Amino acid sequence: MTSKRRSTALIGDDNPVVVAGKSLTWRTLHKLPQLPSPAAVLVDNGADALAALRHHAVHGTELLVATSSRVDERMREELRESGFAIVLPDGDVAPAKLRRVEESGRAWLLTSGSTGRPKRIGHTLESLTTVTSDQPPRTWLLPYSAGTYAWWQVVTLSLTHAQQGLVVVEPHELEEWPAIAAAHGVTAASGTPTFWRQAIYRDADALGAVPLEQITLGGEPVDQAILDQLHDLHPKARISWIYASSEVGASIVVHDGKAGFPKAWLDREPDPDRPTLSVEGDELVIRSPHHGAGLVGDVHTGDRVEFDGDRVLITGRLDTDEINVGGSKVSAGVVRNVLMGHPGVLWARVFARRAPLVGRIVAAEVVLNPALGPITNADLVQWCSSRLPDYGVPRRIRFLDEIPQKETLKSDV
Amino acid sequence: MGEVMTAQGRMLPADDAADLREIGFRSLDFSELALRVEDELGDELNFDAPGLRRIATVGDVLDFIEQLQSA
């Protein structure tokens, strides 16, 4: 590690921060009343989340920050029993039920819960600050839900680097974020593939009008179609995708505009500053310098990979990705990529449906690009039939009016 | 059943005694048909209920689906 990597000096304290339409800086954000420590700060707006983070960065208190809607009553009780005071959006505090010594500097994250109930993962500001090199001046969009790993990545970048402004988008503003971004000169944005697809679907021209120089995708499998669509809209922007999670941190970063990562990155010589990637069976295994507390050594990610020429594609979760159709196995992620490769398909979800004789068959939900004229069930079946074995062709396809999206900006694909 | 066959670029013969293997109606087609019925009814069918028996003709398929619906 270099000393630079571990520096958490608030170099970005004077960076501009736009919240609720107000132009501030980190330093001039409102101050929260003295926070207890450990505290779970539940927020209902982006400004409070940033204020809680800055308080943690300045005072080294033990903090978990999350939107109040992500933390249900049961989890609040669990947190109180683990020694956290719960700070509610209106400022009320439910005291901890266990008195314990704070872990100074500890930042807690909740996993997205893609694999079930959200888990608590311990980090520090240092382990969350994975961007360490000098960055060109940028204004970043912050569309992520407060307290998620992706949110921490963007906010620590802004707080610890010079000339990295932030424009916060609240959940109710997500539908019109391109207009907000254009108005505030956003030049860099990070979002899930679902987030980007929705922006294209709603108004590709508005997205094209944002002066983006850096486009980042993460949090879900990234297919070639969305990378190509974004490149068409922003041919000069650098398009990157990141494999990151609360558990292993940001472990794979790809800038070449292609889905997957080079096979040559597997099983490289160990380097203390670089995650080691390997594949066991068809599961991605990562040993990372950015992992959460207690996750030392190889972490079995639960993500399924598939080899395609000299690339390694991440197709989805192992426990939900494989569909067994009468003994023949097919990856939902692969089928999804084929559907997404159709020029008229903006979004697709592929899943198994229980069926007689074969046990499960492949089914799909899709959202079409209305600009490309009518596309029928038969068109998509034909498209898939020429690219997949017969048991992999979706037999039931439902057409949705819009792309479903959760608070984490993911879509359950 | 006709719609399933058409989606696969084939035609359903008029004769209920037509042999499924000869007309190329496979397990996957049968499964798709069951799910189409399910979607049409807006209700899950109980695939475990009908007893296993030989399904060899178009008529057998139609009987089986009927059985599923009433199960």
Mind sketching the topology for me?
The complex is a heterodimer of chains A (413) and B (71).
Chain A: E1 16-19, E2 22-25, E3 39-43, H1 46-59, E4 63-67, H2 73-81, E5 85-87, E6 93-94, E7 106-110, E8 120-124, H3 125-128, E9 138-142, H4 149-160, E10 164-168, H5 177-183, E11 188-191, H6 193-208, E12 214-218, H7 224-233, E13 238-245, E14 249-254, E15 261-262, E16 276-280, E17 283-287, E18 299-308, E19 311-317, H8 318-321, E20 322-325, E21 328-331, H9 332-340, E22 345-355, E23 359-368, H10 377-385, E24 396-399
Parallel strand pairs in A: 1-10, 3-4, 3-5, 4-7, 9-10, 9-11, 11-12, 12-13, 23-24
Antiparallel strand pairs in A: 1-2, 5-6, 7-8, 13-14, 15-19, 16-17, 17-18, 18-19, 20-21, 22-23
Helix pairs in contact in A: 6-7
Chain B: H1 2-7, H2 20-23, H3 27-41, H4 58-70
Q: Based on the structure given, which CATH architecture of the largest domain in chain A is correct?
A: 3-Layer(aba) Sandwich
Helix content, binned percent of chain B: 40-55%
CATH class assignment of chain B? Mainly Alpha
Largest sheet of chain B: none
Kindly report the CATH topology of chain B.
Non-ribosomal Peptide Synthetase Peptidyl Carrier Protein, Chain A
Query: How many domains of chain B, as an integer?
Result: 1
What's the number of helices of chain B? 4
What class do helices, strands and sheet pairing of chain A give? alpha/beta
How many runs of DSSP E, i.e. beta strands of chain B? 0
Shape of chain B: globular
DSSP strand content of chain A: 25-35%
Low-confidence region ranges of chain A: 1-7
Count all strands of chain A and give the number: 24
Distance between the termini of chain B: 20 Å
- State the order of secondary-structure elements of chain B, H for helix, E for strand: HHHH
Kindly provide the radius of gyration of chain A, computed on alpha-carbon positions and rounded to a whole number of angstroms: 22 Å
Q: Quickly give the structural class of chain B.
A: mainly alpha
Percentage of β-strand residues of chain B:
under 5%
CATH superfamily of the largest domain in chain A, please? ANL, N-terminal domain
Q: How many domains would you count in the coordinates of chain A?
A: 2
